[in-house]
Amino acid sequence: MRLRRGLNNQAPTPVAVRNPFRFGPAGGRPPATTKGGLPPLPSPEGLPLLPLPLAQPPLRLLGLVTLTNGTKMAVISMGSDLILAQAGEVLANRFRVGRIDEDAVELTDAVGERPIRLALP
Predict the structure, then answer these.
(1) What is the rounded distance in angstroms from the CA atom of residue 80 to the CA atom of residue 52?
(2) Cα–Cα distance between 6 and 20 in angstroms, integer?
(3) Quick one: which H or E segment has residue 102?
(4) Do the Cβ atoms of 92 and 107 come closer than 8 Å?
(5) How many other CB atoms are there within 10 angstroms of residue 60's CB atom?
(6) CA distance 87 to 100
(7) pLDDT per position in the chain (121 positions), as tens?
(8) Could you give the domains of the chain?
(9) 3-state class (DSSP) for residue 77
(10) Which residues of 82-92 are buried (b: 16+ CB within 10 A; e: fewer)?
(11) 55, 115 in Cβ contact below 8 A?
């Protein structure tokens, strides 16, 4: 008996006034848009300035060679090309070969003066 009285005293279920199959605000008024129907973009003054990411160079160190006179050379794969490079050389007018170690080569990318270290796999 108490259970029935409790169920009868509940508030009625609210009736939905919004159509769930129709997009847009519930008030029926469309948002402010531009000519193309899209909302306007924020002003650029409030946006932070971010540097663009540089593309990763297609370089891979395949091996290291020490010549009989003691000069070290790096065997580098650049795309489909195979390059033998020594310290001080410039590859593809972009990458300057720095130090050649026993297991890695240090390059400097001319775009952004970014150091790159290629290590043996």
Answers:
(1) 27
(2) 32
(3) none
(4) no
(5) 13
(6) 7
(7) 565 666 667 777 777 677 778 776 655 555 565 566 677 777 888 788 887 776 766 889 999 999 999 999 999 998 888 999 999 999 988 899 999 999 999 999 887 788 999 999 8
(8) 59-119 (2.30.30)
(9) strand
(10) ebebeeeeebe
(11) no
Residue 45, both tokens: 């003054």
CB 72 within 8 A of CB 64: yes
The C-alpha atoms of residue 14 and residue 37 are separated, in whole angstroms, by 34
Q: What share of the chain is helix, strand, coil (3-state, %, to 5)?
A: 10, 35, 60
Look-up of token digits 């395949």: 62
